[in-house]
Structure formats: structure tokens, C-alpha cells
């Protein structure tokens, strides 16, 4: 059981580390920078399109949102499905962490929670400050948040933990955070 737990932790850890890389990379996208430095319907539309292209290549996300410094969503990648433009996320931990970050090398995170940005689905949120000219040490101009489909990863790991039929009868596989909350 210890080996199974370590394997599951490793699977989760590697997968979630990739999310921190994704958000830091995408926060440098010129469409995000332009939407924040040259606000308007055209730059917002272009950012929505670009974020949609990214989402089409990555099936692990519900959505990607671009926020101004006040926490208002100004663009999202699945604007036809999720009506988050205009919502304010200033109170969200993931936004606050990115908003207070020192550089584009830093990222914010918020643990599993139901998000109104994606119609109440459970997500993990990663974030990164968007900086002028896409430079890691540039002036902070906004925040990019990626809304990861937690349940798809977690349930896959829980359901695919290799146990014999006899072990499955007497075993409950759970993913639990450091506070003891059951996440899956």
C-alpha cells in the first residue's frame, strides 16, 4: 500500500508540476499582453481566440482566464461555454498570489474548489502575473489563471490504483490534502 501511495503521489506531483510550467509560459503570450496594455473589444477578442487555441491542444483544462489588476476577467478561452468575462476574482487565492508575485518565474495556486468561472465544477487553479512585454521581470499588468480539471485526473488515479479484487473489497483509495480534506 505504501508503494501504491507513493506511485499515486508521484503521478499527481508530475502532472501538477507541468501545470505550473504551462501558466508561466502562457502568461508571456503577446495576445494576453496586448489585451492588458491596449484594452478594447478587438484585443480582448484576439486574446479569447488565442487562449482557445491553447485549450484545444490541452484537454486537462476547463478554461484559461485573463484578468486585469483589479481581478476582472477580460478574456477567456472558452467564452462560448463559460461566461466568465466581467466576473471578478480579486478575492480568489490564486489571483492574490499571482498579483503579489515578484516575477514571471513565480506562480500562484489554489487548491481544489468549486469555481463559478466554470459553472461550479471542481478545479485546481494556477496563476501567473502577466508582465509588460512578456518579460519575467517586467511591470505587472494583469494575471493569467488556468482552471485545471481536477476530477478527471484525481478520479483516474483513484480508479486505476492497481489492487486485486480482494484488496478492492477492503480498501478505500483517497487523495487527501495536508489539512485532512478528502480531495478525491
| Portion in helices | 25-40%
Radius of gyration: 18 Å
Number of helices: 6
Main beta-sheet strand count, sense and barrel state = 5 strands, antiparallel
The span between the termini is 17 Å
Low-confidence stretches: none
Principal-axes shape call: elongated
How confident is the prediction overall: mean pLDDT? 93
DSSP strand content: 15-25%
Structural class from helices and strands?
alpha+beta
Number of E-state strands: 5
Task: Give a short overview.
It contains six helices and five strands; from the N terminus they run αααββαβββαα. The two termini are 17 Å apart.
Fold and architecture overview:
The protein is of the alpha+beta class and 184 residues long. The protein contains 6 helices and 5 strands. It has helices spanning 2-26, 30-37, 41-57, 93-99, 150-159, 165-170, and strands spanning 61-67, 73-76, 108-115, 121-131, 140-149. It has a 5-stranded antiparallel beta sheet, sandwiched between helices. Strand 3 and strand 4 (121-131) form a beta hairpin. The longest helix has 25 residues, at 2-26. The mean pLDDT is 93.
Amino acid at each position: 500500500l505504501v508503494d501504491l501511495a507513493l506511485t499515486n503521489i508521484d503521478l499527481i506531483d508530475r502532472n501538477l508540476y507541468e501545470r505550473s510550467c504551462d501558466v508561466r509560459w502562457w502568461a508571456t503570450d503577446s495576445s494576453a499582453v496586448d489585451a492588458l496594455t491596449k484594452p478594447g473589444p478587438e484585443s480582448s477578442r484576439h486574446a479569447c481566440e488565442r487562449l482557445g487555441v491553447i485549450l484545444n491542444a490541452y484537454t486537462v483544462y476547463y478554461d484559461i482566464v485573463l484578468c486585469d489588476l483589479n481581478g476582472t476577467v477580460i478574456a477567456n478561452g472558452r467564452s462560448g461555454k463559460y461566461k466568465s468575462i466581467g466576473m471578478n476574482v480579486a478575492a480568489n487565492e490564486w489571483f492574490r498570489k499571482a498579483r503579489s508575485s515578484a516575477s514571471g518565474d513565480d506562480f500562484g495556486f489554489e487548491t481544489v474548489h468549486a469555481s463559478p468561472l466554470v459553472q461550479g465544477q471542481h478545479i485546481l487553479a494556477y496563476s501567473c502575473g502577466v508582465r509588460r512585454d512578456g518579460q519575467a521581470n517586467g511591470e505587472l499588468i494583469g494575471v493569467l489563471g488556468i482552471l485545471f480539471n481536477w476530477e478527471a485526473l484525481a478520479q483516474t488515479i483513484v480508479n486505476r490504483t492497481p489492487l486485486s479484487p480482494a484488496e478492492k473489497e477492503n480498501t478505500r483509495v483517497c487523495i487527501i490534502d495536508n489539512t485532512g480534506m478528502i480531495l478525491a
